[in-house]
Amino acid sequence: MKKLKLLLTLIAVSIGSWQGSWARTAPSLPTTKTLESGKVYYLYNVGSDRFLTYDRTNGGSCPWARTDMGSAVKISVVNGTQYSLYFVDAKRYVLSYGSGDYLYAYESSSQPTSESYRFTIKEISGGYTIQRVYQSNQNEYIGYDGRNTNLIYNNLTDGNIVWQLMDETETARFIAKRNLYRALESAEGYYTGKNMRTFIITRQVVMLLCKRQLIC
């Protein structure tokens, strides 16, 4: 009986405080960074509002452009103004095949020497362009245009080819906050006509009390 009374009291207090601060605000994008060789960034595609991502669970070798996740990328000078892009967690280097449309990621313990793994990164208004060195006379850039689900193209000449560099920690936190914000927005629509605030608070309080073995 005491545990039940405690639960109801906590729920009542939580609802009162929650209603006073319910208004949700979408998180803001992290501030952009300037390119420095050897640094780790998240790469944000400005036009599509997506992040460069490599996810081991997809079972393929192609990086993606995703709104709900991103991957840390180390950018290092290879030769003059040419850079390599390295997915830190997956231990894969980004490469561009000459005849292929898509960007790829190849697992390697050392920096590959082929020019397929090199990219020219130039600062422009609003961010950077990433041009592949292989067949660079064609002026083809890494970008996203939505032609094939989430895949990133390596041969775009215009469109969403502008990227911004963002801090690894700040961006990972931003993506998590945005996913939560969108989930709450979606859930609120789903529970139209119900007291969704009470539902969320009750669930959180119950989970907390169960974790502390006060009621479970």
Which tags fit this structure?
two-stranded antiparallel ribbon; 29% strand; disordered N terminus; 11-stranded antiparallel sheet; alpha+beta; single chain; 216 residues; 3 helices
Structure commentary:
- The protein is globular and about 55 Å long.
- It has three helices and 13 strands; from the N terminus they run αβββββββββββββαα.
- Helix 1 (2-20) packs across helix 3.
- It is of the alpha+beta class and 216 residues long.
- Strand composition percent: 25-35%
Backbone CA Rg: 23 Å
Helix content: 25-40%
Average the pLDDT over all residues and give the rounded result: 79
Can you summarize the main beta sheet? 11 strands, antiparallel
Separate helix tally: 3
Query: What is the SS-derived class?
Result: alpha+beta
Gap between N and C termini, in Å? 13 Å
**Count of beta strands:** 13
Large-scale geometry: globular
Taken in chain order, the helices and strands follow as HEEEEEEEEEEEEEHH
| Uncertain spans | 1-10, 12-21
Concise description?
The protein has three helices and 13 strands.
Question: What is the topological layout?
Answer:
Blueprint: H1 2-20, E1 32-33, E2 39-45, E3 50-53, E4 64-66, E5 73-79, E6 82-87, E7 92-96, E8 103-107, E9 119-124, E10 127-132, E11 141-143, E12 153-156, E13 163-167, H2 168-190, H3 196-211
Antiparallel strand pairs: 1-13, 2-3, 2-5, 2-13, 3-4, 5-6, 6-7, 6-9, 7-8, 9-10, 11-12
Helix pairs in contact: 1-3
